[in-house]
Amino acid sequence: MINKNIKSSAAIISATDLKKRIQHHLNSTLGDRVICEDAYKNTPQNKQAYWQATSLALNEIIIDKLQASKVQQAKSATKSINYLSLEYLMGRLLSNNLHNLNLYKSTEKALKSLGFDLADLCEEGADLALGNGGLGRLAACFLDSLATLDYNAMGYGIHYQHGLFKQSFKDGHQIEQPDMWREFGSPWEICRPEATQLIPVYGYVEQQAQTDGSLTSVWRAGKMLKGVPWDIPIVGYNSSTVNALRLWECRADSAFDWDTLNQGDYLQAHHDQVNAETVSKVLYPNDEHDAGNELRFIQQYFFCACSIKDIISRYQLQFGPLTQATSRNFADKVAIQLNDTHPTIAILELMRVLLDEYDFSWQNAWQLAGKVFSYTNHTLLPEALEKWSVSLFEHVLPRHLTILYRINEAFLNDEVNAMWPNNEAMRARLSIIEEGEQRKVRMAHLCVITSHKVNGVAQIHSDLVKKDLFPEFNQLWPEKLTNVTNGITPRRWLKSCNPLLSELLSKHVDDDWAKNLNSLSSLSPLADNASFQKKFMAIKHQNKVALTTEIKTLTGIDVSPEAIFDVQIKRLHEYKRQHLNLLHILALYRRLLADPDLPMQPRVFIFGAKAAPGYQLAKEIIYATNKIAEKINNDTRIQDKLKVVFLPNYRVSLAEKIIPAADVSEQISTAGKEASGTGNMKLALNGAVTIGTLDGANIEIAEEVGDDNIFIFGLTVDEVKALDIKGYNPYHFYETNNEIKACLDWLDTDYFTPGRAGELSSIKQSFLEGGDPYKVLADFESYSDAQQALGVAYQDKKRWAKMAILNTALMGKFNSDRSIEDYVKNIWFLTPSV
What we know:
The chain has 834 residues and is of the alpha/beta class. The chain folds into three domains: 1-76 and 95-126, no CATH class; 77-92 and 127-486 and 821-828, Rossmann fold (3-Layer(aba) Sandwich); 490-814, Rossmann fold. 48% of the residues lie in helices and 15% in strands. Helix 12 crosses helix 15 (398-419). Its cofactor is pyridoxal 5'-phosphate. This is Alpha-1,4 glucan phosphorylase.
């Protein structure tokens, strides 16, 4: 059924027209008529061809809307938001784009007449996995919402040749391989060579005397990189707007050295080309060595410099030359959001361009930078606040370092000294330069000093940013630090990924809930309705059955859909505490071995996570989980009451299968460590009940759904701080809790690794010798009790159904559309372009 409010002209395109478009691309674009013949219908090559042809047919419609959006945005002359992020987890685009254009049913009909199932074809194609975790998925959700709400927006990032990495397991160990997401191109991307940028690096700074006696800094670059943009259209839902995500590919300024090639040195002839292409080769190269560290730094600068030049170019194309006289108009028409500290160098690059290429005075350039930039902080973890060595700046970006020194000097003398006169300790604390054996640049400090607004991503996180992370900055500028709670797009994370539940909700909600998620609250009275409960839980069961098939395919493990599906899917990191989950699994296993008839609802613990290649303990946790799972899953004594599954290569498309099937959402980070979380929102929206700490957005989810519909455990932020002040001793819990001691000592044996005793000891050591920095042992007993209460609740089918329904119904606050409107109102000050 077509929504009456839909503004998209795509809604009137018929199945017949779509069929013709698909056949046209099969025959002409792909140039292969034989694939249309019945004998070839079920081959993998044929499915791939039909997916590609369908995507190309859809892209025709999308490109028309993209061009129309550009015309409308130019006509309305609205302010644009330019979103700079090193990560974008876009996933697959076919299903989401079809839903957003209201063409899913028509395309399904067209493909059915051609002998294909659309849902099957949506499984074709690689994920656009240009990110690592929540940061990249949040960016993707925000782009979706910006287009849906008809705001003029451009996303900027890197056109990685490979995503993070493709993960597999060998004897339980994580194996990393290149993610070939665009080995043969992607039907969704468009190269824009006319917007190519040249980016200088290395070299030195020369001081040149001017006629008035002043000195001007001139950067003599040692090398030029070429940034080639690729655009991926971002389709709004039930809107007139298609925006773009512009991703920069790095190439050498020239293809190869012709003279060197002719002399027979073929490898050296391509040296510059290979080095340049390495910049956009892979997300997060290992930075444990100097070369990797420098590559990461150049990556960040490269995409920031390309983006700044492009933003200025786009502005001048519409509004005329950028000069000091027109700088106020630039600030009125351009906003730039820094998604975490990765794009911080954009600040220095804008200053450099304004000073060196547009002859701005220092004061005018600095005032303009402060008006256009705003910064989102995503972490309270000190190690996640980026710092680059001063020596690296001197080597790669010497001109930017001189600008940074001047910013720092002015800040310390004008701002810090005015608030804290002659306070050297405060100057050292707030300086952008961290003194020490190796002098470093504090990128977060530069962001806060420059930006007109700095936001955290959940209320508790934003409060802690003010109180613990940047208290002095908050004292300097009480109005600068603010909050914008994260959100997710319900288009992908319910309408597209959970069609069965989507259809049920649409039958009982009058409004277009995918655009107004608050309208789901009208379902609350149905939470106690036996008929609705039955339908809701029948859909959950169908989704669980589908996931059992996926689990069997990926791992060979048989699991029952009658069991509780307990899900923890997120980046593997100690603060997210997958090892707390694992410790509890060991405890359950011991309890079942002691009493196989223990009255316990069968549980399937489902993990999905990648560990950074250089993060050894995270890899050890994966290995331990896989080896423990292997033992548990094959132990007939426990009567299939406990299963453990670690799904390989966790990514967006896999999350879209797991989330609709989840009963329990594990959000168990140490209180005060998770900025927000968005997986918690996706799982709850799909009817999973959260077990979690009072951390990040868990607190706000609890406020929305009510204490009866969530399982909260563990230390609070204040209790964690108090424990640190008192002096945390993990040995206390090891020595006084027999279950903890037995489980940890078990890891020293060869029970899970026959003949190789001690292979899992690193987990125990991290708790004891390592000091248990994330308070796993302190929270274990509370977590175990909450899990026990959860198991009892699940056995009360009516109670559990009510909890699941209310979690779906009361997630309206966590719509990324609401997040964007908060940014618009308090930070960006945009107006829709239609």
